[in-house]
Amino acid sequence: MVDMEFLGLLADISRGLKDLAAIIDAYLEKAKPVEVRLAELRDSFPEDLMDLVEFETSGNRVVVKPKRYLGRENFTRIAEIVKQAGGEYVSAGRESHFLVPKR
């Protein structure tokens, strides 16, 4: 018969490995190069919005700059995409833009 203490030890090891896997996954997500983040962000934009913005990297962030006036509807759509990516809008007059952290 299998020792109950041994089964408990195996259960603890199993939980520990699951926790370790979650930590490694989180680290790898944070370690993605900003270029990968840029590609992911571009992929999240529908084609009709792509002509309205330009993307660039700045340090560990992706900057989304409007090419021209967006209008309320397009601004709202872009702001929602950026928000879902963990970013924010930076109001700076003609230099206003959206910032998305690498993660």
Q: Radius of gyration over alpha carbons?
A: 21 Å
What is the 3D shape? Answer: elongated
Q: Stretches where pLDDT falls below 50 for ≥5 residues?
A: none
Q: Helical region count?
A: 4
CATH topology of the largest domain: Hypothetical Protein Ta0175, Chain: A, domain 2
What's the domain count? 2
Between the first and last Cα atoms, what is the distance in angstroms? 49 Å
Structural class: alpha+beta
Blueprint of the fold:
Blueprint: H1 4-30, H2 34-44, H3 47-50, E1 53-58, E2 61-66, H4 71-84, E3 88-90, E4 97-101
Antiparallel strand pairs: 1-2, 2-4, 3-4
Question: Summary?
Answer:
By secondary structure, the protein is α+β, with helices and mostly antiparallel strands.
Structure explained in plain terms:
The chain is an alpha+beta fold and about 100 residues long. It has two domains: about 1-30; about 35-100, Hypothetical Protein Ta0175, Chain: A, domain 2 (Alpha-Beta Complex), CATH 3.90.1070. It contains four helices and four strands, in the order αααββαββ. Strands 1-2-4-3 form a four-stranded antiparallel sheet. The mean pLDDT is about 85.
Which features would summarize this protein structure in a list?
four-stranded antiparallel sheet; elongated; 2 domains; 103 residues; alpha+beta
